[in-house]
Amino acid sequence: MKVAIFGAGVAGLSAAIELVDRGHTVELYEKRKVLGGKVSVWKDSDGDSIESGLHIVFGGYTQLQKYLDKIGTGDNYLWKDHSLIYAESDGKQSFFKKANLPSPWAEVVGGLQADFLTMWDKISLIKGLWPALAGNEEYFRSQDHMTYSEWHHLHGASEHSLQKLWRAIALAMNFIEPNVISARPMITIFKYFGTDYAATKFAFFRKNPGDSMIEPMRQYIQSKGGRIFIDARLSRFELNDDKTIKHAVLRDGHTVEADAYISALPVHSVKKIVPNEWLEHDYFRNLHQFVGSPVANCQLWFDKKITDTDNLMFSQGTTFATFADVSITCPEDFQAGMGSATGGSVMSLVLAPAHQLLDLPNEVITEMVMKEIHDRFPKSRDAKLLKSTIVKIPQSVYKAVPDVDQYRPDQVSPIRNFFLAGDYTDQHYLASMEGAALSGRQVAEKLHQRMGG
Ligand SMILES: Cc1cc2nc3c(=O)[nH]c(=O)nc-3n(C[C@H](O)[C@H](O)[C@H](O)COP(=O)(O)OP(=O)(O)OC[C@H]3O[C@@H](n4cnc5c(N)ncnc54)[C@H](O)[C@@H]3O)c2cc1C
């Protein structure tokens, strides 16, 4: 069977891996010149790796890890110390470090030892978060009607712990504030964090996600006969009388004919290519419930090390929510002699919430970020900023706001030869690399069930 996949992010690449393994003829069409979508990384004219966004892998990412093992890159990332590190003013750091005990004692004892929480924060947190720790998938779904802030206060947890601990987590997960994000994804994370030690440990790619994951995926697909086309944007579908797809039309006018078609586009792009004739189905109309979260990623090259922390860091009250010194966390890229790096820190910072930043000139954003960097990392005051870059993504992952989860579409559409993959489709993870990988596996399995071959 011939399958045409549109969109070469993690979802499209995962679907392609599954389908070439099953012996199908696979063609993958990507609109950009670089593969990877939101995980894409490219080299600029200085030879520096520019990331769409700082990415980490969690221990619970079993599907993604299966793919990485399959393509021979299972050790392309490095696990870090299991703690949440918050950068504070004047170079101080606060820690939420899991104790070396089985869950949930690892978290309870870790929480009790956290120096940036008051005793009341700790007691109210343990009491307040208990329903999340004891909850199951059904309970999490039932909480999707309220924001996380509402849920937090309803369960008697303190405002201080919300601002100090969880705000940064909401911004890291979905780039939106706790009073905007649904309770569901947050309490699901608490469950993992509080009951499964291994699932919440995290790792960085040895180089960057592009070289360590996307490029090996490309090589694997092509080695199995899959064909990948870049600069190949899907424009529209031409339909048969029964509204199934006759062929796809690319922006340059080329047509693509296949037995089955998979959209692995982000949801805001899918909406643009759904033919009007299909809008009689709730399935396609419901795609309009999703709105992308704006986010930006800033990279700063310094001539000196401004930190020695080999881990992800969080910060609250700053333009950046999560960040790392990738010259330390990713030892095979961003090192002296590679592009602009001279051995100093290379900070990669996720800027969120970003709705007010996107229209600002990059120099203004960099100035704001640098002031905060000087506050959080005093050594930076004596360091020279060699270079800065900013990547803005106006619509990144879908906003996980209350009541939207119910609209996540199944990978099987009402149109017989059309399927969806993507982090926003129905799989048990929030929008993430693991969610995208799961959607790729699910779409391949369901396509196989429906179409045979
Ligand atoms: C700043 C940032 C930080 C993140 N950090 C993490 C993290 O630490 N851990 C984690 O697990 N996840 C993280 N994520 C989320 C993760 O990147 C995404 O959930 C995941 O990569 C989405 O994959 P996807 O394949 O579903 O979609 P996408 O990556 O959006 O891929 C869709 C592809 O379709 C292409 N396309 C669009 N329109 C067309 C068209 N008309 N024709 C052909 N191709 C088209 C796009 O160019 C793109 O390549 C982060 C995201 C961002 C933005």
From TrEMBL:
Residues 10-447 form the Amine oxidase domain. Its EC number is 1.3.5.6. One of its GO terms (molecular function) is 9,9'-di-cis-zeta-carotene desaturase activity. Gene3D superfamilies: FAD/NAD(P)-binding domain. Keywords: Oxidoreductase. Pfam families: Amino_oxidase. It is an enzyme of class 1 (oxidoreductase). The keyword Oxidoreductase applies. SUPFAM superfamilies: FAD/NAD(P)-binding domain. This is Carotene 7,8-desaturase. It comes from Chlorobaculum parvum (strain DSM 263 / NCIMB 8327).
